[in-house]
Structure formats: C-alpha cells, structure tokens
Design a protein that fits this description.
About 35% of the residues lie in helices and about 15% in strands. It has about 350 residues and is α/β, with parallel strands linked by helices.
C-alpha cells in the first residue's frame, strides 16, 4: 500500500500555491517547504496549506539517514533502528510502530495497536501534517533534541502528543471507549494525561511532558510550548465548557496551573509555578500565586524563543515602583496597559 502524506508550505494569505501531486507506489513521498517560524520569521497572518502526494519528505529522509548512521555506529541498537525506522516506508508507519511498542500491554497488543494507528494516520491528513510540524517544533525549540530521529525514537513528550492525536481522532470517530483506553495507557506509560476530546493545534512542544494534564474542554492553539507539570484544568464540578483556552504562540512554564474556562492570550507567557485563575492578555507575562500581570513580551511568539525570563517592562516597573514607593502598579513606559506588582 502506498503511503499518502502531506506537503507543508508556508504562504501569505491570498497567495496562490500551485503544485501538482504525484503518488509513489514504493515509499512515502512528501515535500516540505519549512514554515517560516522555524527560520525565525514566522508571521501570525500567514497560513499553512497542505498538498498530498508530492515527491520528497525531508524530515523522513533525515530520520532514515540518522538511523543508518547510528546503526553502523552503535551495533547494539542496530536491530531496534531497523525495526523502528529502516523497515518502514514512511514516517507515519515508523511512528505507529514506535508508539505501539511503547503502549502495548496484555489488553492492547502491539499488532492491534499498529493496525489502529496505521488506519488513523494513513487516512488523516491533519495528523500527517501535525506529526511533522511537531517534530520540527521539538528540534527547533528543545536544545536537547539534536535531530528529528531523537524526537521520533526517544522523547516521551513527542510520543505522548502523537498518541493523543490518534486518541483524539478515534474520539471524533465515535470510538470513545477505545480513545479512553488509549488515554489511560498513555497516562500510565508517559505520565501525561490529555483527555482525547481536548483540542490541540500543530507545531506543539511538550518539553519533558512529565506531569502534564489537559482537560476535556481545553483548547491549545498552534505553536504553543508547554513545559513539564503544566495543568490546564477545571474548577469545581461544573459540566460543559470548563477548561482553559491557550492562544497561539503562548509559553506555559513548568508546573504552572491554569484553571477554569479562561483565556490565555496569543503570545502570552505564564511563569513557572504560577496559578492562573483569570484571563491573561495577549503578549503579557503572568507571574505568581495567584498570577499577576507583571509586564509585556517583546518577542512576538515566546513559545518559539523559549525565553522564560522577565522583559524590559517588568524591570522598568520594579525600578519605578521602588523609587516612588508605590505598591499598586504604574504604567509601563510605552505601554497603555496597567501592570500590577506581584504579591
């Protein structure tokens, strides 16, 4: 069976993308022109369009090249690398093999999981696109991830995210019991608990992943980075829409807790260990327990730069407050919004 994959190209709104598709009967064939954000010039108003069945797949080619090199270099892993990568004809089937062998147990057999994963990924263009953008996000934003093959083979943040994507597809197909069984197994194996009904965008980084919890009605936008221990949870026993909405390009620091049906604006940064109970404006920084707005982010997309430190506004704010003896917050230089000193 030929592998049908996606092509990803970043184009400006209104620009026509002209390309002809071709089908290969021998291997996965995909061409990617990398999104501009990977080169440091991502523009929020640009859109990513997909085309099927076009020649070439740089990410998959890179993974296979790495696997060949490492198999020659590290003989003890040669069988693992052949079984996981070199014996497959495309990224989707390689990923399905890796995930099935990580998630298998006495109830969910590896062969059964491989069939399920293959059926989902080979027929879902959105997942085909997302697994590549996610791999690129891991390589670009995590200094510990030196290659695409490292994300595919060894990083449980990537594994848990792609396992969620399959569970989400099954949930949307009405196979909710299977999706929940898969969610349970993902939580056991990876210590990451994402409800299969949650909606998560593309180009996502789950750094480390351990302790991450995302609730049923949570929404995570594109290009978001989530550190270990993050909770996107509800409050009380209310039903319905009760979980946070995370805007595009936001950065959520380690062990941050965001509760309730609130909005974290595009390009916002939540500092590590913060407890967020109210909306956070776009491109602002929230710090503390409970979190306060302490400044504004100069970077257009903090999730791409992965800078967790305070910006110029915050230090100007602290300096002005100290000199004036104010405790209730002042206007930051060049900003119209009021900022508030953390408790």
């Amino acid at each position: 069976m030929a592998c049908r994959c996606v092509v990803i190209q970043e184009v400006e709104e209104g620009e026509e993308l002209k390309s002809k598709g071709r089908v290969s009967s021998r291997r996965c064939r995909t061409e990617m022109m990398f999104p501009m954000y990977a080169m440091g010039s991502f523009k929020p108003n640009s859109i990513a369009r997909t085309i099927l069945d076009t020649a070439g797949d740089p990410i998959w080619d890179s993974v296979r090249a790495d696997a060949r090199f490492e198999a020659d270099k590290e003989q003890i892993l040669s069988s693992f690398l052949y079984a996981s990568v070199l014996s497959h004809d495309c990224l989707e089937r390689s990923l399905g093999f890796v995930l099935a062998n990580r998630l298998q147990n006495a109830t969910l057999l590896a062969t059964q999981l491989m069939d399920i994963f293959d059926d989902v990924m080979m027929n879902d263009r959105g997942i085909q696109r997302s697994i590549r953008l996610d791999a690129q996000a891991f390589k670009d934003r995590d200094p510990a991830c030196a290659s695409y093959s490292w994300a595919l083979l060894y990083l449980k943040g990537y594994h848990s995210l792609q396992s969620y994507r399959i569970a989400h597809a099954l949930w949307n197909q009405g196979r909710k019991i299977l999706a929940l069984a898969l969610q349970s197994r993902i939580s056991e194996v990876f210590a990451v608990d994402i409800h299969p009904a949650a909606r998560i965008g593309e180009g996502i980084l789950l750094d480390h992943g351990t302790g991450l919890v995302i609730g049923e009605t949570a929404v995570v936008g594109n290009w978001v980075s989530l550190m270990q221990g993050v909770t996107l949870g509800g409050t009380g026993k209310e039903v319905g829409d009760r979980h946070p909405k995370i805007g595009q390009g936001a950065l959520i620091g380690a062990s941050a807790t965001v509760l309730g049906n609130i909005v974290i604006g595009e390009g916002a940064m939540i500092a590590a260990g913060s407890l967020v109970l109210k909306d956070v404006p776009a491109h602002s920084m929230a710090v503390g327990n409970p979190a306060k707005i302490v400044g504004y982010i100069e970077d257009e997309e903090p999730s791409l730069t992965m800078k967790h430190d305070a910006g110029k506004d915050y230090f100007e704010h602290v300096a002005a407050s100290s000199s004036d003896g104010l405790n209730n917050g002042i206007h930051c230089s060049g900003r119209k919004s009021q900022v508030e000193m953390p408790l």
